[in-house]
Amino acid sequence: MSSGVAARCDAKKLVRSPSGLRMVPEHRAFGSPFGLEEPQWVPDKECPRCMQCDAKFDFITRKHHCRRCGKCFCDRCCSQKVPLRRMCFVDPVRQCAECALVSHREAEFYDKQLKVLLSGATFLVTFGDSEKPETMVCRLSNNQRCLILDGDSHHEIEIAHVCTVQILTEGFTPGAGSTRATGMSLQYTVPGAEAAAQLKLMAGEDANGSKRQAAAWLAAMHKVPRAGSGRLSSWD
Q1: 232 - beta bridge partners?
Q2: Which of 54, 57, 146, 156 is least surrounded by CB atoms within 10 angstroms?
Q3: What is the pLDDT of residues 163-206, one digit of tens each?
Q4: What global pTM score does this model have?
């Protein structure tokens, strides 16, 4: 990717909405697939009462809109201000209790797991029906739009084209529940192809720490927010 194209991909602008200031991509096509659109607020005239506790709104009990779901609540039911990274808000915004709980979990993903995914890890990668795996570094692109695989060959898979993801584990003991992520199998669509393509990533066996890094990367991948959805997903 040329420096000019990369600069356009990373360009952002500050916009003001009724919900607050947002730092959004200058071009929508370069936005993160994990992003969420701002919801339409429930019109004031359609919500004379709190949509959680049914308190009647008046001069004392004021109404507030949750910035994540757009519903109307009283101050008691919508008092938390929580970061909402998936909508690119600059500052924490008011959310109802249910949405705040989801946003707190997502904040942990952005603060911890996302850094792991961007750093990448080394895997043995098998494409389709190939019997010979290739040692490759797999990472999430800086704009979060693609999985990038680098080895003797180079591949980029758009997150929006991923159909299914299955985290592969080992070490399950009935009743104990102890498992360890060892790999990942995913299917994705290829423009112009009728059937979905597939690949498998497996952590290699070595003693230099890359297997632990691969396990951490897989665990982070398990926490990726579902693209276009308002909740976290384990992909499967």
Answers
A1: 225
A2: 54
A3: 888 888 876 544 445 677 889 999 999 888 888 999 999 987 66
A4: 0.73
